Amino acid sequence: MSLPNRTAQKHFSTSLAALIFVVALLAAGAWAHRAVYSGPPNGAPRVTRDLTGSVPAHDGEHIRLSTELGSVIVHTAASSKLDYRVHLETDATQKDAQNLLDGFHLAVNQTRDGISLAAASRDHWTGRLWATLELTIPQNSSLDISTGGGNIDAASIEGRARIMTQGGNITTANIGGAAHLETGGGNIVAKNVDGDLFAETGGGHITVGSVNGNATLRTTGGHIRVASVQGAAHIYTGGGNISLEHSGAVLTAETDGGQIEVGEATGLVRAKTDGGGIRVVRLFGPTDLQTSSGSIYLTQIDNAVKASTSSGGITAWFASPAKPHGGCDLQSDDGDIVVHLPRELPVTIDAQVEQEGDHSVIVDPAFPLKVSYGDSFDGARVVRAEGALNGGGEVLHLRALAGNIQFVLSDAEKQMQIYHDQMSQIQKQMTQLQQQLLLQAFDSAGDSQSAGSEPSNQDSPRH
């Protein structure tokens, strides 16, 4: 069988990346709006203060910003300066309201490789303070931002980026180098990263466009959706789904309680879930899949596959012509195994079902397999199917402990239709997650600001 049309694949990937970017920008706008205007409750009297200024800046410099609290918005421009604006708000009814505003300080210093900005409260006043820091920097810069509590929204930059917040959302456009994105409990949305990407959140979703380098993505309880990773990808979530449209090298994906979906996988794939199904649309490299509670669905297999499920079925479509890259091993403890084989595929079959009830091996007449009955080493009744198709080839081992094994003659047209349908489903799920992120941006983008606005003691002037 020929590979799917490459032009169509490229168009799909481009469209998906564009979709991610558009929604990311919308989310960024929503978060930025909330960041600027969140503060004392509506109708409450407030006092404000703005700090503004500019310093010379040059292409290729490293911009560093560290702040005790507040949201950060980074714009880029074709200029030779850095502009900054700090907007402060507090409840005017507080005893130390004006002191809170006056005590917030921004230090700006030229460094050997760029500019350093540090924001903090100089005096130990108690009360609630809201802060938003806006920077406009040259586009050809590298960026290092950290905040003690707030959202961070960054426009496209040509250098590397390190962005960290203890409790807010992170949104970025294109990043021209390596990127480190980390939040204690918000969502991460990024467009394209030209280098390696590390993204980690304590409890939000991660949504990324294309990554040209390696990617390490981790969340303790959200979904992870990625358009493509050209390098090695290591993806983990403690309780959400994983979806990756294209994997260009080694892929390791693990979730403690969700589904795993992969479009095209060029390299080695290792995927494990403790509470969901696994679907891989196209396999070009060796694959090891494990699920303890879910089904496994493989649309086009073109390499060695090891797949096992403790509670679910396995459906596998094999591509043709096959390449001699090793045998396949499919095992289900409690479910059926259905294998779709092209008529001309050279393969050696070794299938076995432990009979419980009416479970058996069902063989299409197109395949001359020998079916026999006997006992296993532990005395259980088994049924076996064996044979060398088209002269034999790599061994296909199939084991079903409490289910049927079925061999079906593959329909090339149907297989191709399934391929396109599966890829479309991955795109649809990406769209649905993006819509959820937008709603969350409006509903909870201010949570980190509110969390940072609780009354403090005398030793913590930030909140």
Summarize the topology:
Layout: H1 6-37, E1 46-56, E2 62-67, E3 71-77, E4 81-91, H2 97-102, E5 104-110, E6 114-121, E7 130-138, E8 142-147, E9 152-154, E10 161-165, E11 170-172, E12 179-183, E13 188-190, E14 197-201, E15 206-211, E16 215-219, E17 224-229, E18 233-237, E19 242-247, E20 251-255, E21 260-265, E22 269-273, E23 278-283, E24 287-291, E25 296-301, E26 305-309, E27 314-318, E28 328-332, E29 337-341, E30 347-354, E31 361-363, E32 370-375, E33 381-389, E34 394-400, E35 405-409, H3 412-444, H4 447-451
Parallel strand pairs: 2-6, 2-8, 3-7, 3-9, 8-10, 9-11, 10-12, 11-13, 12-14, 13-15, 14-16, 15-17, 16-18, 17-19, 18-20, 19-21, 20-22, 21-23, 22-24, 23-25, 24-26, 25-27, 26-28, 27-29, 28-34, 29-35, 30-34, 31-35
Antiparallel strand pairs: 1-4, 4-7, 5-6, 30-33, 32-33
Which tags fit this structure?
17-stranded mixed beta sheet; elongated; 18-stranded mixed beta sheet; disordered C terminus; disordered N terminus; 35 strands; 463 residues; 16% helix; alpha/beta; 2 domains
Descriptive account of the structure:
The structure is a single chain. The protein has an 18-stranded mixed beta sheet. The chain has a 17-stranded mixed beta sheet. The chain folds into 2 domains: 12-40 and 151-320 and 410-441, no CATH class; 45-148, no CATH class. The longest helix has 33 residues, at 412-444. The chain is built from 4 helices and 35 strands. It has 463 residues and is of the alpha/beta class. A hairpin with a 5-residue loop joins strand 32 and strand 33 (381-389).
